[in-house]
Amino acid sequence: MKIWIIDDDASTRLLIRALILETDADPSEILEMSSAEEALQALARGQSADVYLVDINMTGMSGLEFCTALRQSEYNISEYLPYIIVITYTQAEETPGAVLDAGANDYLSKPVNRKVLHTRLRVAGKLIDHDRNFANYKYAQSVISLGFAHAGVPAAILDVQEPPPNTYIVYANIAMLNLIQTGADAALGHSLAKFQSWQQEMMDTCSLSFASGKPFSSKLLSDSPYFTSLDLRVSGYPICVPGEAVTQYLILEEPFSFS
């Protein structure tokens, strides 16, 4: 779980880091930021975290302003991903409401209590895992729907080159592009292995077919976390052009079973 500590007080950051490390967290997964602006700059460079521990009162942009900016950014996946905890000295009655209105999920009072922090992080981890799994499930379902829509038509045409199974994409429809999570410009002319990691069982089946120039059919067996549960069959049919390398159509067909 990636955690950012955003606080303009160095001693507070050091204390919170030490408390987090008591939970067996990976030190490399914890980053410290001295301001909200520094955190936003890191986001702009493509960095992000699962959990943000944000001081409510900082020089420059406040913690609440940062929460709002983060929730409005492309890195806001769902209600709990990322998970935002605001840290505050303020005990005012309106503080919890203001924190939640800004988009935070929870808040901690200073001085930070070790047991309370550990409990909050455990809750955050469970909620993040739930939302991440749900997001993966929804994405996988969208790929299945595209597969249904394009069933029976070529998903991709691959040039097969020696030694098998070196395959280079010369055509890919929208279902295939979504399966390998890239665009046509980035896919065409590149090896399929660059985008999609097939399991050895499927590779062996395809390699034998590629080497002999025969059709093949295999369950989609992928190491990609999005597609390990997809119950789809991939079928390949050779395009026989004398004197040229075998090129195969890959077709996403109906699932083996419905769930």
How would you describe what is shown here?
The radius of gyration is 24 Å and the shape is elongated. It has a 5-stranded parallel sheet with strand order 2-1-3-4-5, with helices on both faces. It is built from 8 helices and 10 strands. It is α/β, with parallel strands linked by helices and about 260 residues long. Helix 4 (about 95-100) links the parallel strand 4 (about 85-90) and strand 5. The chain has helices at about 10-20, 35-45, 65-70, 95-100, 115-150, 175-180, 185, 200-210, and strands spanning about 5, 30-35, 50-55, 85-90, 105-110, 155-160, 165-170, 215-220, 235-240, 245-250. The two termini are about 30 Å apart. It has 2 domains: about 5-145, Response regulator (Rossmann fold, 3-Layer(aba) Sandwich); about 150-250, 2-Layer Sandwich (Beta-Lactamase).
Question: Short summary of the structure?
Answer:
With 259 residues, the protein is of the alpha/beta class.
- Specify Rg, calculated over alpha carbons: 24 Å
Query: The CATH topology of the largest domain is what?
Result: Rossmann fold
Outline, from the CA principal axes? Answer: elongated
Largest β-sheet summary: 5 strands, parallel
How would you state the average pLDDT, rounded? 80
Q: Which stretches of 5+ consecutive residues score pLDDT under 50? A: none
The helix content is 25-40%
Element-level helix/strand string: EHEHEHEHEHEEHHHEEE
